[in-house]
Amino acid sequence: MTAKEIIKYMETLRNEEQREVLMRFFKTGPGQYGEGDEFLGLKVPQTREVVKAIDRDFPIEEVPELLLSRWHEVRLCGLLILVARFERLATKRLAHDDEAMRGRDAILTMYLRYAEQANNWDLVDLSAPKILGNWLLLPTALGADFCLSLGKGRVGAAASEVAAHVACDEEALRLIRQNTLDALAQSDNLWRQRMSMVCTWKTSQQGDPSWCLRYAEMLLHHPHDLMHKAVGWMLREMGKRCGMDLLRDFLSLHAHEMPRTTLRYAIEKMSDPERKGWMSGERKVESGKRRAESGERKAESGERRAEKGKRKAGNGERKAENGELRCEN
């Protein structure tokens, strides 16, 4: 089937009653975050059935036509085709296969090129963790030029610094990945920004909290409620997967400045007393005291090390004096 045939078929499934419900749910009115988005009235399982039927034989070069459709569900169909293709190339057997790696990189490049077509939270959330999140965990041949095509200024400059080392340096590859996400997080587009945060769900699932913590801190003061929810959600998932103490440490540093929605989402899996403590500010005070006490202990430890150093210096001077006396004798 071609993209035009898929669109025509999906239009035959149009449901006016469900369409009205979805347009209200996804805030498509004037001034709302989904302003202008148009729906056919299909439920997600219906779109998944279309993807399942055509995915393996559908030409990937026709996916952009789906992503550029006026219809929300058709754009979702295009994104889910990319997800299905990427996941088939991301199995353990194919993780280090050169051809599979090139295929994954091509899908990611297409995904980011049309990122603004994922212009509602469901489109981002159903695609970013499975494409962008998985890409962070897998070998890639994309290098500094790729980052330079995504961002300017500091992001692009940092990417160019590692260009000569990309082929052999895992640290440089991580920097390439980081700059890719930085370009998304620092863009002026809400959906690209949400991608940079929500994709960390996958890295947290694999036990790496660093991505979540980096972008939660970077996007902590974002003005939009959808980002407040995304940051809190990803912090909660990071705590579940990587350890609640990591989440508590982050909250100890930032709870006093977090939007209430972000904090509420982040602490959702904690016990009732602990949640109440964080929301009331009591835990913030306790955390501040612990940080102060920790700082005092570090200062005392530093003083003891300084005293020990002075004693060693004194011993060294005495040994030098003894050596001089022996030379004189």
Descriptive report:
Helices cover 70% and strands 0% of the residues. It has 329 residues and is mainly alpha-helical. Among the domains are: 207-280, no CATH class; 284-329. The longest helix is centred in the last third of the chain and has 47 residues, at 282-328. The model is unreliable at 152-168 (pLDDT under 50).
Kindly summarize this structure in a few lines.
By secondary structure, the protein is mostly helical. 70% of the residues lie in helices and 0% in strands.
List the helices and strands and how they pair.
Layout (H helix, E strand, L loop, with lengths): L2 H10 L3 H10 L18 H11 L8 H5 L4 H17 L9 H16 L7 H5 L2 H10 L6 H7 L3 H8 L8 H16 L4 H9 L1 H6 L4 H9 L6 H18 L1 H11 L5 H7 L5 H9 L1 H47 L1
Q: Radius of gyration, Cα only, in angstroms?
A: 26 Å
User: What is the CA–CA distance across the termini?
Assistant: 102 Å
Tally the helices: what do you get?
Answer: 19
From the helix content, strand content and strand pairing, which structural class follows? mainly alpha
List the helices and strands in order: HHHHHHHHHHHHHHHHHHH
Poorly predicted residue ranges:
152-168
Q: Helix share of residues?
A: over 70%
Number of E-state strands: 0
Entry keywords:
329 residues; globular; single chain; 70% helix; mainly alpha
